[in-house]
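Field notebook, page 168. I keep forgetting to write these up properly, so this time I am using the form the group agreed on. The chain and the ligand, heme C, are recorded exactly as supplied. Prediction of the bound pose follows.
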Amino acid sequence: MKKLLITLSILSIVSFSLYAGGAGEDATPTQSSAFAGYTSWAKVNSKTITGDVTGVLGAAHERSKGFREIYVNKIGQPVEEGTSDYPFPEGSIIVKESYKNKNGSKGDLSNLTIMVKRESGYSSDYGDWEFIMAKPDGTITSQGRLKSCISCHRKGADKDYTFINSNM
Ligand code: HEC
């Protein structure tokens, strides 16, 4: 039994790292400087997002009681605004701020979650997106073809693996 458990856990570690590695190691992971100053970028949502507007939010992004703001860089802006069709072009960066709920209103900034449109082939099954988690100050805590993000964002395949645009 013990042997079986050990074998199973080794197998799951191996398969996870294979999956997370996707098309191979990432030689040039995105640096936090790529999204520094994002608050001066175009804002995607006109009203602060709260509740579960898509029905798939679950426990992500500070949950339905939290508050969210989304920004996009110049490269991705035309797609978010609907003047250009999906998919987003390479170099598009979308930054999402998630705020805690403090007595019913927007509390502290809890974290940043970021999607970076990488070169073709980076993650061919899921739109070549690099997913990033960062602290409020922009320090990256994890990044890559993050399984935890893909498991949900795959449901937004019709919008190139995103959920929200300027028309919501
Ligand atoms: C359980 C589902 C779920 C998971 C897991 C999830 N997201 Fe999201 N994400 C959403 C939803 C829903 C939205 C739409 C905005 C909203 O409701 O706040 C969103 C929006 C976003 C956006 C803005 C672009 C868009 O899709 O509209 C980014 C960037 C983002 N998520 C990044 C991430 C990253 C990075 C991870 C992993 C650390 C992650 N998400 C994990 C559900 C999820």
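OBSERVATIONS:
- Residues 35-159 form a domain with the Chalcone isomerase fold (CATH 3.50.70.20).
- Helices lie at 2-21, 77-80, 147-153.
FOLLOW-UP: compare against the apo run.
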